[in-house]
Amino acid sequence: MNRRRFLGAGASLASGLALPRSLRAEAAEELIQGKAEHVISIWLGGGMAQTDTFDPKRLGDAKAGKPGSYYPSIETAVPGVRLCEHLSKMARLMDRVTAVRTVHHDVIDEHAAATNRMHTGRPISGTISYPSIGSIIAHQRGAAGEGAPPYVVIGYPNVTRGPGFLGAQAGYLYLTDTSRGPAGLSRPKSITPERQARREQFLAALQSGDPPTSDRQLMSYDAAIEQSLKLSGPEFNRVFHLDQEPADLRSQYGGEFGQRCLLSRRLIERGVRFVEVSHNLNFLNGTGWDTHNEGILKQHELIRELDTAVAALITDLESKRLLDKTLIVITTEFGRPPEFDGGGGRGHQGSAFSCVLAGGGLQHTGAYGVTDDLTKKIVENPVSVPDFFATICAAVGVDYRENLYDGDRPVPITDRGKPIGALFG
After folding, report:
1. pTM above the 0.85 mark?
2. 3-class DSSP state of 105
3. What is the distance between the alpha carbons of residues 269 and 384, in angstroms, rounded to a whole number?
């Protein structure tokens, strides 16, 4: 047994002996594991208002200062589950979806801190750099196909999406434009295959001249270089040729955000394990999901774009028999209160908000958890961010009870979250 395993086993034994019997039994609960192979995570930067989307309540009135939903609600495929009227396409598919309406955390006024929380599952630490959920799954499961990266971000790079202490090999490949592949992997036309081969031979000669290293950071970057060389050829880059898709299918997905969702399907077909699709780069209302003041006036355009793209993604995956193998996740940094601010928009609310799960082989219920009559408080089935992350991990066969290691320091994968057991039958 090496030092790391010895320390982990010792810590587990010590903590187990110190726990009351009820907690020891809880720690020994049977592992929940789903059978999904991929995750497509859709990020709504700015803070989606749950009361205007997936947890509608009574109608409010911004001008009169009456708290409530901004739009009327509609029935869905699941009796008793209602959505905002601008989610009409998803409403017909809610038997494949669960709106988790009781996610909560304690971050309210800081977008950056809340974005970090909703990617790493933890508060920011001054002593440790935590990995994102994408990096965790990439690290634990690796790529799902030969010659594919495990983790891709369609959006701008950000440290909150990064691998933290897991190192560069658990990092992501990113692109910001669906009309072309990642710039770092696209060879200039002047670099012929022969010229590229000579460059790789030169790199190999340089590396062979150095003595073997045990430095984790150097080993991590060597692994990242090796992976980038494998991915820079034409075979992987063909996945970015969206013009190979039927024109009517591309039209069903909609504009740039929809094309990102279509690309995410192509990426998981190619063997990518985890894809994040950002919906905060092509704002239609000037502020995106950060709907303070007049930003709320065209919020419906964002909601409709989300509805069109996600509904197309669900039906497209289903038609290709990939929906049960692919967990779709919709997250945002926090929700919005039912009250309107002085400019007619909404502030921030972390005490109760909605995130969404679809596909992934889960037993979907349309909605999970209950909030009060204005979505300000959780009434039934609260779901912490670690619990939500544990649900994602369980769905794709990652043991959410395990520890990762920052050096010799054990770090629980999901900060001891528990999956939503009702979604696993």
Report:
1. yes
2. coil
3. 31
CA angle 8, 223, 264 (to 5 degrees): 95
What are the DSSP E strand ranges found in 27-93?
A: 38-44, 73-75, 82-84
Q: What is the CA radius of gyration of the chain?
A: 22
- Do residues 42 and 404 make contact, with C-beta atoms less than 8 angstroms apart? no
Reported as half-sphere exposure (CB side, CA atoms, 13 A), residue 343 has a value of 10
pLDDT value of residue 23: 46
Interval 95-103 mean pLDDT = 98
* Among candidate residues 380, 384, 351, 350, the one with its CA nearest the CA of residue 365: 380
Q: Which residues pair with 331 in a beta bridge?
A: 43
Domain positions in the chain are: 3-9+32-186+232-424
Identify the H or E element spanning 104.
Answer: strand 97-104
Cα-Cα-Cα-Cα torsion 74, 77, 82, 88, nearest 10 degrees, comes to: -40
Quick one: 3-9+32-186+232-424 is in which CATH superfamily?
Alkaline Phosphatase, subunit A (3.40.720.10)
Q: End-to-end distance of the chain based on CA atoms, in angstroms? A: 37
Render pLDDT for 359-391 as a digit per residue (tens, 0 to 9): 999 999 999 999 999 999 999 999 999 999 999
Q: How far apart are CA 65 and CA 71, in angstroms?
A: 15
